[in-house]
Amino acid sequence: MKRILHLVVVLSTVVLTATGCDFFRKLAGRPTSTDIEAMRQAIALREEAKVQAAQTDSVPVVPDTVAAKPEVKPAPAKETVSSSSQANDGKKRYYIIVASFSKVENAERCAERMAGRGYPGELLKFKGGYTAVGVLGTDDMQEAQASLKELKRQDFCPQGVWILDRNRK
Question: What is the mean pLDDT of residues 28-43?
């Protein structure tokens, strides 16, 4: 009897060592480590699809395709960027463009999120019906470049942010 018990313990140890917990999980009808990893990957793919679906309306705007002087409209119910040096039309010359949307509502939501993170901005209308979200408006190019570097260090900063020069011909 003692031998049989010893043999069962040794066999259990060998099975556990060779197969890990998956053997017992399978016996209990629970998911194995392979099943768990497959579920984890499926969840990651679903989350990525959600992010891509939310960004389908977001279109990157290449500086060569924008109008020379876009119409600037302040974001609704949000504080606009102010500075002591103003361009002759009352608007800033340089803006950091964080996103561009075909629907104004999406641009407004993006401007609200950026303002909530301490970067209030303005909505910039472009030819073709796109509305961009510009933050950290300034009349100094060096200040705009420094602000762009600082914004890129933030974990919420979208990829592809760039500086718009409203006076570019």
Answer: 86
- pLDDT at residue 88 tops 70: no
Domain hosting residue 33, numbered range: 2-55
37 and 110 belong to one structural domain: no
Q: What is the DSSP string of 35-94?
A: HHHHHHHHHHHHHHHHHHHHHTTB----GGGS-SS-EEEEPTTSPPP--SS--TTSS-SE
State whether 46 and 71 are in the same domain: no
What would the two tokens of residue 12 be? 């259990």
What value does the mean pLDDT of the chain take? Answer: 76
Length of the chain: 169
Q: State the CB neighbour count (10 A cutoff) for residue 106.
A: 18
In this prediction the pTM is 0.47
Identify whether residues 126 and 75 lie together within a single domain: yes
Contact between 95 and 123 under an 8 Å Cβ cutoff? The reply is no
Answer yes or no: is pLDDT of 139 > 70: yes
CA angle 111, 117, 120 (to 5 degrees): 45
